[in-house]
Amino acid sequence: MSEKWISSIQYFETKIKRLGDTLMIRIGPKPSGFIVMVVVLSAGFPSSLFGQNYHPLETGTEWYYENIEYGPMSISMTGDKLVLGVWTKVRHQEEALQTYENFWTCDDDGNLFLHGAHNLDDGWQAVYVPPVKMINAPLYLNSTWITEDIMVYDFDGNPIWGPFNYGLKVYWEGEVNVPAGDFYAYGVGINPSIKSAHFKSIDSHDMFGRRGEETEDPPPGYPEDWYAADIGMVRHIDAAPWYWNLVWWKGPQPTSSKEDSWGRLKFGLK
């Protein structure tokens, strides 16, 4: 049993979210002005209280989405793939008109990296060196990060294009309602203030391997992917204003039931 002490000089307003074994407490001032000490007793918590898994990569994890314009999309983690000397996790995506895969790793802090992509229908492929940091953990509103000097190669290591920079920003933090439920999520999108932030489409494919000749990118400064910790992507926008909304998922689950999941619980001292 370990003890973690979090203190505030003034009244604290707290939101408690339980994600598997992790308990997060936010602290902020309030004019009533008295000292409060909070003790969080935790058994078996991870070494970092704030480390989160925003995209489970375990084989067998599945997500199913619906989009009123493009129909359903299924995503599943199908195994491992060696990509230019790096072992990655394969994310398999199926839509009505195409199937493609992208390749991921995640470090112990929860940072998520995209290593490459492959469209299984037309053979399009790309490998990113260094890998693109898609999540800089922990996520919080207005946080920004950048991956610099990215080169694009094919699977044989032949250069295709680059270098370019890719910057992202958290534009949204709060509850998101989708058919699968209500989730506390973080909306991440391209940061237009970063020079060369946009991925240069090669043969009309995006950086995940999706062919999109007739789609339009979301406007700069707008979230494209909404992530909920321990669940993954709960919403995605590919062509504005059409959303892919999560309908169900199978895989790593929050410790509590869906009705009492961390995305639904709201605590606070008023």
Overview of this protein structure:
This protein is an all-beta fold and 270 residues long. Helix content is 0%, strand content 51%. The chain has no helices and 16 strands. It has strands at residues 2-8, 16-19, 22-25, 36-42, 62-67, 71-83, 86-94, 99-106, 112-119, 125-135, 144-153, 159-178, 181-190, 225-228, 232-239, 242-250. The strands form 3 sheets. A 12-stranded antiparallel beta barrel has the order 5-6-7-8-9-10-11-12-13-14-15-16. A two-stranded antiparallel sheet has the order 1-4. Strand 14 (225-228) and strand 15 form a beta hairpin. The two termini are 30 Å apart. The model is unreliable at 1-50 and 254-270 (pLDDT under 50).
Write the layout of secondary structure elements.
Elements lengths: L1 E7 L7 E4 L2 E4 L10 E7 L19 E6 L3 E13 L2 E9 L4 E8 L5 E8 L5 E11 L8 E10 L5 E20 L2 E10 L34 E4 L3 E8 L2 E9 L20
Antiparallel strand pairs: 1-4, 2-3, 5-6, 5-16, 6-7, 7-8, 8-9, 9-10, 10-11, 11-12, 12-13, 13-14, 14-15, 15-16
Series of secondary-structure elements, N-terminal to C-terminal: EEEEEEEEEEEEEEEE
Which structural class do the helices and strands define?
mainly beta
Please tally the helical runs, counting DSSP H or I stretches of 4 or more residues.
0
Distance between the termini: 30 Å
Identify the strand order in the major beta sheet.
Answer: 5-6-7-8-9-10-11-12-13-14-15-16
Main β-sheet, in a few words?
12 strands, antiparallel, barrel
Low-confidence stretches: 1-50, 254-270
The radius of gyration computed from the alpha-carbon positions, rounded to a whole number of angstroms, is 20 Å
The count of strands amounts to: 16
Mean pLDDT across every amino acid position: 77
Helix content: under 10%
Task: Estimate the global geometry from the Cα principal axes.
Answer: globular
> How much of the sequence is in beta strands?
over 45%
